[in-house]
Amino acid sequence: MNDKNNKPVMAHESTWTDLKHFGIVSVTGGNQLYRNGYQQLLVKVFIEVTDWWGYSLPLTQSEFDSIVLIDGITGAALTKDRHRGDVGVWKYTEQQDSRFRQLPPNGPVQGPVPSGEFVYTKDFYVTSSSDRPIDLQLRIARADGEPFQSDRQKDFGALALVPLAPATYRPEQYSVRRTSAPYTSHGDIEKVEIFNLELIIDQQRMEFVTDFSMGAHLRIGSADSRYTGYYVAGYGNGRSIRTGMPVYWDLPDALGRDRSENWRVAWVLAYGKHGGRVWVRDPVARTSFELRDMYGNLHQLHLELTESPLAVRIY
């Protein structure tokens, strides 16, 4: 079992007959999550069983492992796995995906969870890709195969969860902050500039964590005789962003990774150097761009490299 406060479970058949406590609570008090299949909501399950005389008894390991979350309306067990991509389902796992945050709580913290020598607890992480709310209940199988279900009429016997449509934002809500960067001219690059993507919602900076992708790497020619052209390399959360085609010129990877650490996005605009290989024969000024934020929501944007003025922008 996964909770340090519980006593070791029995290895053999138990003789309990009733559920003294069998409940589920939201650890933070929130009951809402985005239905993107990535954001997790942490719930805690607790159980205490008794014999005919009301004495608490330990569970067997197999009984403890048999605890599942079920749909309180249909009685069907939720799918237990970590795979993404399903549509229209509620799922859960025992593993936290620390990349994604829960929403701020929209209700009071529930509890307290009962304590006692034979009170067992277990944490589950729930995800949803369904637009249908759900009343979660619990089921356990006794060692002899007899199923028992939590009582929705009792405190914490059920937990109502509400899926929210993934948040979307208008292009004008994003901003691209331009900064200079120290860079020693060498190879294909004369100099560089940094463009950081920013999205501020309710006075909070949105963090971008995974699934970074650009349709193509941007490059255009230069009307300025000092440079042979311009091209853009993208970086997200300390890593290079994959593109639909490779970049054959030098990449300022160390700088880009540094400026994109801690869940940020950075585009490095490189100025082509005379004597280098940068010669733009097939300019690409616009491309699509995707990334996933700290709440698991996917952002699908359009990125543009302009020469007058020279800038990287969202449109």
Walkthrough of the structure:
The protein is mostly beta strands and 315 residues long. The protein folds into 2 domains: 18-164, Immunoglobulin-like; 171-314, no CATH class. The protein has 2 helices and 23 strands. The protein has helices at 61-65, 253-259; strands at 18-26, 32-34, 41-50, 56-57, 68-71, 79-80, 90-93, 120-128, 134-141, 147-149, 159-164, 174-180, 189-201, 204-205, 208-214, 219-220, 230-236, 239-240, 242-243, 265-272, 286-293, 298-307, 310-314. The strands form 4 sheets. Strands 12, 13, 14, 16, 17, 18 and 20 form a 7-stranded antiparallel sheet that branches. The protein is elongated, with a radius of gyration of 27 Å. The mean pLDDT is 93.
List the main descriptive attributes of the protein structure presented here.
315 residues, mainly beta, Immunoglobulin-like, 2 domains, 2 helices, 4% helix
Helix segment tally = 2
- Span from first to last CA? 51 Å
The CATH architecture category of the largest domain equals Sandwich
Structural domain count = 2
In N-to-C order, the SSE pattern is: EEEEHEEEEEEEEEEEEEEEHEEEE
Give the uncertain stretches in residue-range form. none
Number of strands: 23
User: Which structural class matches the secondary elements?
Assistant: mainly beta
Kindly provide the radius of gyration, computed on alpha-carbon positions and rounded to a whole number of angstroms. Answer: 27 Å
- Fraction of residues in H or I helices: under 10%
Please describe the biggest sheet, giving its number of strands, its sense, and whether it closes into a barrel. 7 strands, antiparallel
Percent range for β-strand residues: 35-45%
CATH top level of the largest domain is: Mainly Beta
Rounded average pLDDT: 93
Say what the CATH topology of the largest domain is.
Immunoglobulin-like
Shape: elongated
